[in-house]
Structures are given as C-alpha cells and as structure tokens.
C-alpha cells in the first residue's frame, strides 16, 4: 500500500518537527524561509567549483 513504505514513514516523522494536525506551529513557513535564505546567503559567499580530476 502506498504511504506505508519506510521512506514514507521517515518523511512523515521528519516533517513532524513543527507538529502535525490542527495544532501545527504557526511560524514553520517563516522558519523554513529564513533557513533557505540563510543557506543561499552562505553558498553565495563562497567560490564553489568542481574539481578537475
């Protein structure tokens, strides 16, 4: 049955950080947005290139 695989269970439990159901964290979208912006800022401050092997 779809949704009962180990990968699906892992996804459900990892996304429960902000709670589930009707009492979820109101700031979860803001927190995720701030994390994305912070990661983008960190990556943009570094000179990233692939190694030539």
Automatic annotation (TrEMBL):
<dbReference type="InterPro" id="IPR001128">
    <property type="entry name" value="Cyt_P450"/>
</dbReference>
<dbReference type="GO" id="GO:0016705">
    <property type="term" value="F:oxidoreductase activity, acting on paired donors, with incorporation or reduction of molecular oxygen"/>
</dbReference>
<comment type="similarity">
    <text>Belongs to the cytochrome P450 family.</text>
</comment>
<keyword id="KW-0349">Heme</keyword>
<dbReference type="GO" id="GO:0004497">
    <property type="term" value="F:monooxygenase activity"/>
</dbReference>
<feature type="region of interest" description="Disordered">
    <location>
        <begin position="1"/>
        <end position="22"/>
    </location>
</feature>
<dbReference type="Pfam" id="PF00067">
    <property type="entry name" value="p450"/>
</dbReference>
<dbReference type="InterPro" id="IPR036396">
    <property type="entry name" value="Cyt_P450_sf"/>
</dbReference>
<keyword id="KW-0560">Oxidoreductase</keyword>
<dbReference type="InterPro" id="IPR017972">
    <property type="entry name" value="Cyt_P450_CS"/>
</dbReference>
<dbReference type="GO" id="GO:0005506">
    <property type="term" value="F:iron ion binding"/>
</dbReference>
<keyword id="KW-0503">Monooxygenase</keyword>
<protein>
    <recommendedName>
        <fullName>Cytochrome P450</fullName>
    </recommendedName>
</protein>
<dbReference type="GO" id="GO:0020037">
    <property type="term" value="F:heme binding"/>
</dbReference>
<feature type="compositionally biased region" description="Polar residues">
    <location>
        <begin position="11"/>
        <end position="22"/>
    </location>
</feature>
<keyword id="KW-0408">Iron</keyword>
<keyword id="KW-0479">Metal-binding</keyword>
């Amino acid at each position: 049955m779809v949704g009962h695989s180990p990968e699906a269970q892992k996804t459900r439990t990892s996304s429960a950080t902000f709670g589930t159901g009707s009492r979820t964290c109101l700031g979860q979208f803001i927190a995720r947005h701030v994390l994305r912006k912070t990661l983008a800022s960190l990556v943009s401050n570094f000179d990233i290139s692939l190694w030539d092997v």
